[in-house]
Structures are given as C-alpha cells and as structure tokens.
Automatic annotation (TrEMBL):
<dbReference type="InterPro" id="IPR050855">
    <property type="entry name" value="NDM-1-like"/>
</dbReference>
<dbReference type="Pfam" id="PF00753">
    <property type="entry name" value="Lactamase_B"/>
</dbReference>
<dbReference type="InterPro" id="IPR001279">
    <property type="entry name" value="Metallo-B-lactamas"/>
</dbReference>
<protein>
    <submittedName>
        <fullName>MBL fold metallo-hydrolase</fullName>
    </submittedName>
</protein>
<feature type="domain" description="Metallo-beta-lactamase">
    <location>
        <begin position="34"/>
        <end position="249"/>
    </location>
</feature>
<feature type="region of interest" description="Disordered">
    <location>
        <begin position="137"/>
        <end position="163"/>
    </location>
</feature>
<dbReference type="InterPro" id="IPR036866">
    <property type="entry name" value="RibonucZ/Hydroxyglut_hydro"/>
</dbReference>
<dbReference type="InterPro" id="IPR036388">
    <property type="entry name" value="WH-like_DNA-bd_sf"/>
</dbReference>
Length: 344
C-alpha cells in the first residue's frame, strides 16, 4: 500500500488493515505538511505511535481523525514516541491528560527531554550563540540564527531500551533502537504483522536531518550511528523478507531494506564528496565554511539563518564521521574549530 505525499488538505485518516490506522496531523508552517500518527489496536485500547505537533489545529485533527475511524482519544492506552522532536512528541502530553494513558520513549531521548526542561531560555540562547561562534559564523549570522525554540515535550512515564516490548496487550510491538536522527530514535516492529513504524529513520523520498550539537563535539558520531542503524533495520523480518514501512512523513512504502540501502549509499557519496572538497582546499576550514560549500536543496545564500544553523549541524556530523574514519583531522587548540583532509 503506497500513497504519494499530497498536501495536508488532501490527506484523510485511513484504515490500513490488521488493526492499524493512520491519522495525518498538520505541522503549522512546515514544508513537511503533516506527521502520520498511527494507532494500533489492542483489547485494552489503542496505542499511538507518535502524536503530532502541539497546536490546537493539530489536536483537532488527531482527536477528530481518530473519531472518524471509530476510535476515541480518551480510550488511548498510551503513546510510544519514536523520538522527542515536537512534530512527534508535541501532543503526547495532551493525549495523556485526555486518556490517562502513558507516554513512552527511549531512555536516551528521555534524558534529553529532562535536560531541555531544566534549561532556561536565556541559557539556551547563550549556548546556541557560543556554538555558532565556535563553528565560524560571523557575529551578524549568530544574532540572526539564535531564535525561539518549541516548548519541551511532556516527560515520559516509561523509558524503553532496545528490544523492549511496548505495553500492547495481545500484540508484539518491539522497540528497535535506531540512533542518528536523535540519540534515542526508535523504530517499532509490529512482529505479529511484520510491519515497521520507521518514524524519521527511513523515509521514502527524503532523508532525515543528521546533526551534531554542539557542532564541535568529538565524543559522538551520530552519522556513523545512523548508518549502522540503517543496516540493522534492513536485516529485520523473517528470513530477511522485506517489510512494509509505515513512516512518520510522506507515504507508506514496501521494502524498507531497499530504501535503507539507498539512504546509506546517499550518505556514503556525500562523505566522499566532502572529503574531496576538503582535499582541494589548501587551508583548514571552519564548520561554517564547510557547510557553505556543501550542496543543499537551495543555494547557501538563499537559506534562512535557522536553516543555515541546521546545515552546519549536518556538516559537523559528516566531518565528525570522516574524522572517526581517519580521513580528516581537526586542528588542536584553535577557535573556531577547523578541519583539514588527510592523505587517503
């Protein structure tokens, strides 16, 4: 079952069969348009996979969409969040208030939500400004790129680890830890139907943002984690059979393994292109300079300050992966941090 992405106004809640439903929930002001929230039936009430953005229109779409499918938001048993981003976790707290159900997410993302909750707005602005400066952004760009952030999502009641079964009576919904997009991103394998809820990990047409924050961290490799996670989901399913993917955006598609392999190849090409770009530069480059010379969906000059900041995060993740592979090095003791290619 496959449906190409259409504008949100053309989307409708759908019965996907086998006790699984999808409800499109709008994301105000986002080119993605909507999050696909899924409901999985159980004798004790449905469990939602993600919940959507925290906005009155989104709540109306979620609760009304469930009602159109014969489901009552007040009967929801729980919400399992694929990752903490606001278009996935934003409404989880309101669902909990309406139903008395639980919220579950991976322990690594739960730790980030706790940190976000404790981090006051002015402290966050200072952190972000210093991160941008150390990446090589000029003062004007720093001022423009620092902006408001969404309120943190509700704290979860339950924390999941890789391999845990979600509390879904009568069914087997297993958490598969797929870090990269966030440290605690999970896919959810509905083993009794051999379907995979992929969140943002594997999408049919676009690729998720893989960034590193702060940009100059050298103790993590989110892109390396992401590539390993792609291999892992490609190996799920009985006897290696391909599975139908139920992603959080765009459309449902078959053969998650084939799409995971495509995404891995895309990033491997991007890493090689970046290594080659650095090898042609006689001087070490800042993260900001590297981001400006990479290829994005629009020219660097046309990107908004906020999008430039995200691009820098993605450039930093690719630089870190190349560094972990011994293909580039960061210069010690310089501010802003700079990288140069090593002989391959």
């Amino acid at each position: 079952m496959k449906s190409r992405r259409r504008p949100y106004a053309e989307q409708r809640p759908r019965d996907l069969g086998g006790g699984v439903w999808s409800v499109p929930v709008p994301i105000p002001g986002s080119p993605l348009g909507y999050t696909l929230v899924y409901a999985v039936a159980s004798p004790r009430g449905p469990v939602l996979v993600d919940a959507g953005w925290n906005h009155p229109d989104a709540w109306e779409a979620l609760s009304g969409g469930l009602a159109s499918l014969g489901l009552d938001v007040t009967a929801v048993r729980g919400v399992v969040v694929t990752h903490f981003h606001p278009d996935h976790a934003g409404l989880a707290g309101q669902v909990r208030e309406a139903s008395g159900g639980w919220i579950a997410m991976h322990e690594s993302d739960a730790a980030l939500v706790r940190l976000m909750t404790e981090y006051a707005g002015d402290r966050h602005d200072g952190f972000q400004s210093d991160m941008l400066r150390r990446a090589g952004a000029d003062p004007g760009e720093v001022r423009q790129a620092v902006g408001d952030r969404p309120a943190p999502p509700a704290l979860p009641d339950r924390e999941l680890r890789d391999g845990d079964l979600v509390d879904l009576p009568g069914r087997k919904l297993r958490a598969v830890h797929t870090p990269g997009h966030t440290p605690g991103h999970i896919c959810l394998h509905l083993e009794d139907a051999d379907r995979l809820f992929t969140g943002d990990h594997v999408l049919p047409d676009i690729t998720p943002h893989i960034g590193i924050y702060p940009y100059d961290r050298d103790d993590v490799d989110p892109l390396g984690d992401f590539l390993e996670s792609l291999d892992r989901v490609g190996e799920l399913g009985p006897l290696g059979a391909s599975m139908t993917a139920l992603p959080a955006h765009e459309w449902i598609f078959p053969d998650v393994a084939a799409r995971a392999a495509e995404i891995r190849h895309h990033h491997e090409e991007k890493l090689e292109q970046l290594r080659a770009l650095l090898a042609r530069r006689p001087e070490p480059q800042t993260i900001w300079e590297v981001a400006a010379m990479m290829t994005w969906n629009r020219p660097w000059e046309d990107l908004s300050p906020m999008v430039r900041g995200m691009a820098a995060g993605e450039a930093a993740a690719h630089l870190r992966s190349l560094e972990a592979s011994g293909l580039v090095r960061r210069l010690p003791g310089v501010d802003p941090v700079r990288f140069q290619a090593l002989d391959s």
